[in-house]
Design a protein that fits this description.
Layout lengths: L5 E5 L3 H17 L6 E9 L4 E8 L6 E2 H4 E5 L3 E6 L5 H12 L5 E4 L2 E5 L12 E3 L1 H16 L6 E7 L2 E7 L7 H12 L5
Parallel strand pairs: 1-2
Antiparallel strand pairs: 2-3, 3-11, 4-9, 5-6, 6-8, 7-8, 10-11
Helix pairs in contact: 1-4
C-alpha cells in the first residue's frame, strides 16, 4: 500500500495536533482510505472552533460497464450475455430489470443472461454502467471526516468532485467565505487549486 505523498495536521494547540494526527491516521487505516488519498491537510482550531480537512485522491475507481465482465452475443431473436466474472451479477440483474423489465430478462444459469433482441438501447449494452465504486468511496471519505471532526461539530460543508474533497465542520455557524478564506489556502499548501 503506497504511503500518502502529503499528510499534515495543523493546529495552534500542539497537544491537540498530535492527537488529531493519530486519530486521522487510525481512521484512514481502519477505512482503508490510505491507498486512495494522495494528499490530506487537516486544520483544527478549538478556539474558533473549526475543523477543516482538504484532500486530493490518488485515483478514482472507474465505473464498471457490462462489457468489462460479460461478452455480448447478438442473435436474430435474442441477446446472450456470457458472464465472465459474477462479482457484479446482482447489480447487473437490477440494471437489466430496470431497462428491459424483469419479465424480459431470463437467467438459465449463473453465467448466462438472455434478453430479447430488438429492444431499445441494446446497441449500447456493453457500455451500460453496472456499478460505480466512486459512490461508495465518496461516502467513506465523508464518513471518515465526520468521525475525525470533534464531537458536537454538527454545522458542516462538504465537497467531493474531480479527485478533490474538503470537509468543514464547526459548532457555530460557518462564515459564507470559509471556503475562500480557509479551505483554498490548504489546497495551495498541497500544491493544487480547488
Amino acid at each position: 500500500m503506497p504511503p500518502q505523498n502529503y499528510f499534515v495536521v495543523e493546529s495552534p494547540d500542539e497537544v491537540g495536533r498530535k492527537a488529531y494526527e493519530r486519530v486521522a491516521d487510525d481512521v484512514l487505516q481502519d477505512l482503508d482510505l490510505i491507498k486512495v488519498i494522495d494528499r490530506l491537510h487537516i486544520y483544527v482550531d478549538p478556539k474558533i472552533p473549526i475543523f477543516i480537512a482538504a484532500g486530493v485522491l490518488r485515483h478514482m475507481p472507474r465505473a464498471i460497464h457490462v462489457g468489462d465482465f460479460a461478452n455480448v452475443k447478438r442473435g436474430d431473436t435474442e441477446i446472450i450475455l456470457d458472464i465472465g466474472d459474477e462479482t457484479y451479477l446482482a447489480p447487473l440483474l437490477r440494471v437489466l430489470w430496470d431497462i428491459y423489465g424483469k419479465e424480459n430478462v431470463e437467467q438459465p444459469d449463473r453465467f448466462t443472461i438472455i434478453l430479447p433482441a430488438g429492444m431499445a438501447g441494446e446497441e449500447d449494452l456493453e457500455q451500460v454502467v453496472v456499478a460505480d465504486p466512486s459512490e461508495t468511496l465518496h461516502k467513506d471519505i465523508i464518513y471518515a471526516m465526520q468521525y475525525m471532526a470533534p464531537e458536537g461539530f454538527k454545522v458542516r460543508r462538504q465537497y467531493i468532485r474531480e479527485g478533490k474533497f474538503y470537509y468543514v465542520a464547526s459548532e457555530d455557524t460557518l462564515p459564507g467565505d470559509v471556503v475562500e478564506r480557509m479551505v483554498m489556502p490548504l489546497f495551495e499548501k498541497m500544491g493544487v487549486t480547488l
